[in-house]
Write a structure and sequence with these properties.
By secondary structure, the protein is α/β, with parallel strands linked by helices. The protein contains four helices and nine strands, in the order ββααβαββββαββ.
């Protein structure tokens, strides 16, 4: 059986020279790769105590939903601004060039709920930090973040303020 890293396609010089793009679609397009990714991520959090799984648009939906299903937990969406139909709470955060806003339904997290955030990747940590702050604004407690890939050289872990990070694959470079 192949290792999980073998399913990730690495594309040099994309989106710009000197960057190695780690392509998650190559994992998703292979049934064995997808199965291994979900199982590996779920195994990383098997001893964690959580009430709800939260995942951001769009790849957090892909990995978060089966993890919620396996653990018999509800799944809560975090979306880009303007995509949710009911009353929302929002959080602005910095991007490399500008800002973005994420939202979740105001009634999606109950005070005191323990939350596991699931995403495909952590790089600089800005989006993940914003998700943690959004969950906490509703009274939830983020007990962990699980990702398929961590780009450790971009120091995203530092923005988690002590929240445990579980990475299925860690790449040391940028």
């Amino acid at each position: 059986m192949k290792k999980l890293e073998e399913y990730v396609r690495s594309i040099p010089d994309f989106p710009e020279e000197g960057i190695i793009f780690r392509d998650v679609t190559s994992v998703l397009q292979d049934a064995d790769g997808l199965h291994l990714a979900i199982d590996t991520m779920n195994d990383l959090i098997k001893d964690a105590d959580f009430d709800v799984v939260v995942g951001p648009e769009s790849r957090g939906f892909i990995f978060g939903t089966p993890i919620a299903y396996i653990n018999k937990k509800p799944f809560v969406l975090i979306r880009k601004k303007g995509k949710l139909p009911c009353e929302t709470v929002s959080k602005d955060y910095a991007l490399e060039y500008g800002t973005a806003t994420i939202e979740m339904h105001k009634d999606s997290i109950k005070p005191g709920q323990k939350v596991m955030i699931v995403d495909d990747l952590i790089a600089t940590g800005g989006t993940t930090e914003a998700m943690i702050e959004l969950v906490e604004s509703l009274g939830g407690k983020v007990v962990g973040v699980v990702v398929l890939m961590e780009l450790a050289g971009l120091n995203g872990r530092e923005k988690l303020h002590g929240v445990p990070l579980y990475s299925a694959i860690t790449y040391e470079g940028k």
